[in-house]
């Protein structure tokens, strides 16, 4: 397994580890519940250095990314970020990612850890060869910088106060005024660091991109600065429960090459842009056919009416009307919600069963448990 620059620091803190996308990552340090509640009430510190960082530079960077991804990246302002998808020609989702516009002709693409090499290869191939039938590629350079970059996140209500306490004194306002899905450059301990305000927990939070050799010092500085704010180190286990409560999809669970954007409910596809982006024809056909809207399946939230939680792959069963007893879908993610106190799940179900309030069962290894379709997200933070 690959290790991040902070693996030794995690071991010293007593972390238990897991294999995640080929990386040795901290699963938890003390208690998954304790870490989950810390993020919801104070703050949690995460090592996300397994994520990818792919830089796109060149005069055709905007046009290139508008061809590679489903969203309109040319419309993103410098200093802002956008969530998007990269798809196959058949519309299947290769990955979901965040794209930061660094400058007029420069972007930073952040894919998921397990998909980084797939995304880098797809972008490199498109840059060099262009779309099928085109005479040439694009005037851009694709640099996979993942091996040299560490990514640290602070998530929770106290995140802004913690970050504000470690930046240079005259830059505190940059933290306070940074908008959601935006980024800036700050100085911490004499080092210039890219600071973004995005997140994957449903709470306010920040991500810090920096070279590997600077990661250890920043990790310790954040732990020290956060000690008075209730900050604790957190692993991937609570990150999963946090993102599920916030209704955020996970690649490999809710997002796969077998699913298209319309089934997920993610409003990320831009048909108004002029570029013939990868998967456009297939997605236009799927939209015309009503896939994910009038036909097929759709991703929904399920609230448990009992005490047991559904897990990925468990069948969803209709309980009402002529389809009672029929399998209508399957769970993609599920667990007992630490914040809400009842089981929650996301599942793809047939379109006739997506209306909030619809009662269904999840088959827990032969034992049906009652659930109710609800709107996502399950949890929304107080602002």
From TrEMBL:
SUPFAM superfamilies: Aminomethyltransferase beta-barrel domain, Folate-binding domain
Enzyme Commission numbers on file: 2.1.2.10
Stretches assigned to the Aminomethyltransferase C-terminal domain: 298-379
Catalytic reaction annotation: N(6)-[(R)-S(8)-aminomethyldihydrolipoyl]-L-lysyl-[protein] + (6S)-5,6,7,8-tetrahydrofolate = N(6)-[(R)-dihydrolipoyl]-L-lysyl-[protein] + (6R)-5,10-methylene-5,6,7,8-tetrahydrofolate + NH4(+)
Keyword Transferase among record annotations: yes
GCVT N-terminal domain: residues covered: 7-268
InterPro entries named among the record's database cross-references: GcvT, GcvT/YgfZ/DmdA, GcvT/YgfZ_C, GcvT_bac, GcvT_C, GCVT_N, TrmE/GcvT-like
Keyword terms of this UniProt record: Aminotransferase, Transferase
GO terms for MF: aminomethyltransferase activity
Function: The glycine cleavage system catalyzes the degradation of glycine.
NCBIfam families: gcvT (TIGR00528), PRK00389.1 (NF001567)
Entry-linked PANTHER family: AMINOMETHYLTRANSFERASE, AMINOMETHYLTRANSFERASE, MITOCHONDRIAL
Family according to the record: Belongs to the GcvT family.
Assembly description: The glycine cleavage system is composed of four proteins: P, T, L and H.
This protein's name: Aminomethyltransferase
Gene: gcvT
